[in-house]
């Protein structure tokens, strides 16, 4: 699954690049004059984002300022759980009741398997064990909308179902298993039809290697 082109708007790519340069400069700048220059670059990046999104410049600036150090992609883990050929999805409270694979940000100190097993349990009520990494995706390349301000890698883990049962959480209002032809409306910022189709392909071909990019 290589050779894909990012669909990120050019203005957002420019703003990301400016913010990343400014963030690194503010973290490692040797002197006050350079610091002022990087603050100005960060301000320009915030103005670009605010102009295209309708958000306030102070709001975007505060969001950018919360990040420190050299920027690297954030890591989003997602659990891929099948039962009798049907895929587990959870219903998001934050996205008008649309559905997604259970998952979320990996926490510092977690092994990747721990992170995805915890996210599945907390969001769906099911206990699982991570058994295989199916895909590592750059979020920009797989049709997610809206585009994100940050670079994000999405890790999809095939998980063995151990037990538990469907339950709601502070982030979800339900969990259910769906056949491929029954997939409900998806939360496209988290999961896309293309990704779901590929995961069903992986289920039909357990010998496939891990996808990347």
Describe the structure.
- By secondary structure, the chain is of the alpha+beta class.
- The chain has 2 domains: 10-65; 74-212, Nucleoside Triphosphate Pyrophosphohydrolase (Alpha-Beta Complex).
- It has 5 helices and 8 strands; from the N terminus they run αααββββαβββαβ.
- It has helices spanning 10-28, 32-53, 57-65, 112-124, 193-204; strands at residues 74-83, 86-92, 99-100, 103-105, 126-138, 152-164, 172-178, 211-212.
- Strands 1, 2, 3, 4, 5, 6, 7 and 8 form an 8-stranded mixed sheet that branches.
- β2 (86-92) and β3 (99-100) form a beta hairpin.
- The longest helix has 22 residues, at 32-53.
- The radius of gyration is 19 Å and the shape is elongated.
- It starts with 9 loop residues before the first helix and ends with a strand.
- The mean pLDDT is 91.
Summarize the structure in short.
This protein is α+β, with helices and mostly antiparallel strands and 213 residues long. The chain has 5 helices and 8 strands, in the order H-H-H-E-E-E-E-H-E-E-E-H-E.
CATH architecture classification name of the largest domain: Alpha-Beta Complex
Helix/strand order: HHHEEEEHEEEHE
Q: Write down the domain tally.
A: 2
Stretches with pLDDT under 50, minimum 5 residues: none
The CATH topology annotation of the largest domain reads as Nucleoside Triphosphate Pyrophosphohydrolase
């Amino acid at each position: 699954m290589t050779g894909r082109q990012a669909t990120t708007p050019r203005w957002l790519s420019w703003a990301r690049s400016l913010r990343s340069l400014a963030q690194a400069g503010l973290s490692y700048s040797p002197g006050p004059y350079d610091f002022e220059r990087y603050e100005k670059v960060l301000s320009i990046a915030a103005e670009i984002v605010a102009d295209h999104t309708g958000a306030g410049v102070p709001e975007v600036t505060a969001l950018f300022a919360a990040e420190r150090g050299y920027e690297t992609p954030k890591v989003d883990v997602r659990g891929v759980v099948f039962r009798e050929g049907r895929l587990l999805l959870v219903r998001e409270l934050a996205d008008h009741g649309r559905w997604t694979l259970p998952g979320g940000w990996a926490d510092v100190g977690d092994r990747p398997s721990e992170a995805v097993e915890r996210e599945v349990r907390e969001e769906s009520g099911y206990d699982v064990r991570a058994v295989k990494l199916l895909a590592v995706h750059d979020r920009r390349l797989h049709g997610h909308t809206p585009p994100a301000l940050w670079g994000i890698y999405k890790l999809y883990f095939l998980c063995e179902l151990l037990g538990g049962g469907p339950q709601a959480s502070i982030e979800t209002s339900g969990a259910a298993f769906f056949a491929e032809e029954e997939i409900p409306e998806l939360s496209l910022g988290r999961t896309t039809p293309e990704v779901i189709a590929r995961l069903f392909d992986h289920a039909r071909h357990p010998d496939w290697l891990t996808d990347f990019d």
